[in-house]
Automatic annotation (TrEMBL):
Annotated ranges, domain AB hydrolase-1: 64-293
Database matches in PANTHER family: MONOACYLGLYCEROL LIPASE, MONOACYLGLYCEROL LIPASE ABHD6
SUPFAM superfamilies, alphabetized: alpha/beta-Hydrolases
Taxonomic placement: Bacteria, Pseudomonadati, Pseudomonadota, Gammaproteobacteria, Pseudomonadales
Any single GO BP term: acylglycerol catabolic process
A GO cellular-component term linked to this record: membrane
Pfam families xref list: Abhydrolase_1
Protein's name according to its UniProt entry: Pimeloyl-ACP methyl ester carboxylesterase
Signal peptide residues on this chain, from the entry's feature table: none
One example GO MF annotation: monoacylglycerol lipase activity
Species: Ectopseudomonas guguanensis
Amino acid sequence: MKKLLFALLLLLSGLAATLYFFPATQLASLRLIEQYRAGLAHEQLSVHNLNIHYYQGGPASGETLVLLHGFAADKDNWLRFSRHLTQDYRVIALDLPGFGDSDLPPGSYDVGTQAERLADILDALGIQQAHVLGNSMGGHIAALFAGRYPDRVRSLALFANAGIDSPHKSELYRLLTSGATNPLVIRLPQDFDNLLQFVFVEPPYLPASLKRYLGKRAMARAEHYDRVFEQLVERSIPLEPELAKIQAPTLLLWGRQDRVLDVSSIEVMQPLLRKPSVVIMDNVGHAPMLERPEESALLYRRFLQSLK
């Protein structure tokens, strides 16, 4: 028994050391655990010679939810959120072209181009109609898609979406217009912690070794993200004229303490939408589905159920 216990301790020590010294393995392990708990599988398909990665789960006969991440993010943002939806809905969380594991296509990453790529991706998946949800940049893309293809969107949910000239300027806007560097782009190792503090009120726990790894990975993409952000700004399509084209019931969900995009955007959007619902979450930042995954998923589920 002592030998068995000693062997088990050695095995656990070796596993802990492996995860500490090889954070890529740690991240892959955590992803698999979260995928399993959410009932999601990692899949991919080719769309116009672009390799697109996505998570998919839930009953094939269920109504389809399409989830779009924000700038410098990826499909992992929806893992814990999706856990509370896959029992009843078919969930698809995309890596948009240029992000996550999907290919980096030549050309533009502006929201208009990405909205058309989204239409092509849904065609390739055989999805004619879906509930579409987007956060930040993904919300901007989702709203444009809903305006351009109203017959394809059963409902629209916008979690702190971009594309609105808000009455009260966000902290990010004030920083960028003052000439400060973009806090959403990681250039130095310490920038990752600063990013977490900027995006969240209470950042999700991450082991130090994993923070370092994620920071280094983001640093390697800094030039790409700079180019994408420049295009998002220079080729932006304001949403104000587009909102009246949206036919679908729309949920506007925001964190009251959002420093990236100000919650006052709701004041502009609500009167321009045909069927708006509004939820403001207290003590939440820019990514409700990460900071409060269960609560934000239940709020979204309540919105979906109200449509029946």
